[in-house]
Amino acid sequence: MNSQSYITHSEEEMVALGERIAHMLPRPAVILLSGDLGAGKTTLTKGIVKGLGAAEPEEVSSPTFTLIHEYGDPTSVYHIDLYRLDQARELATLGLDEIFDREAVVIVEWADKFPQWMPSGHLAIHITDSGGQRTVTLSGIPLSPEGPQS
Ligand code: ADP
Ligand code: MG
Question: Most-buried pick from 78, 97, 122, 129 (CB within 10 A)?
């Protein structure tokens, strides 16, 4: 599958990369983020949310306990973290299918725990940390350098 990789060396570079990704993203879109705890998934999300104009990075925090955060008014970005969910039964109570159907950008951390629940037409972003250097690999749906088609 076609994939692109980017390297970032700081939190600031990670946020800036998220903004660039936001500008190339089709709408609506589902983004599935994978990578170890601390890899930078929430940090990249801060940049994506900023790039979409939905909130400032300081306003974006990990939905580890609340599971879903919404940004924008009206809501244009859903940020979901499945880290604390262990059973598909709990997942069923979240109403994910309904969220995936919205005219929004839906960003999911730890989606790889429940792959069969995720829509097939998604942007997959995998982050690895090797010696402080983060490699961010994008695959799945194509991104347009000219920005989203409307
Ligand atoms: P995750 O959501 O994958 O668990 P976070 O986004 O919360 O990870 O990031 C964990 C820590 O790593 C944060 O302190 C963040 O500032 C830092 N960080 C994120 N991206 C980078 C990067 N590219 N280089 C160095 N540190 C980073
Ligand atoms: Mg996180």
Answer: 78
Q: Kindly report whether the peptide bond that precedes residue 28 is cis, defined as omega within 30 degrees of 0.
A: yes
Question: From the CB of residue 150, how many other CB atoms can be counted at a distance below 10 Å?
Answer: 5
Is the minimum distance from the CB of 35 to ligand 1 under 6 angstroms? Answer: yes
Look at ligand 1, atom 25, and give the residue with the nearest C-alpha.
10
| pLDDT tens figures, 104-148 | 999 999 999 999 999 999 999 999 999 889 999 999 988 887 666
The CB of 38 under 6 Å from ligand 1? The reply is yes
Successive 10-residue mean pLDDT values, the chain, 150 residues: 92 98 96 97 98 97 93 97 91 92 97 93 96 94 72
CA of 120 relative to ligand 2 center, distance in Å: 22
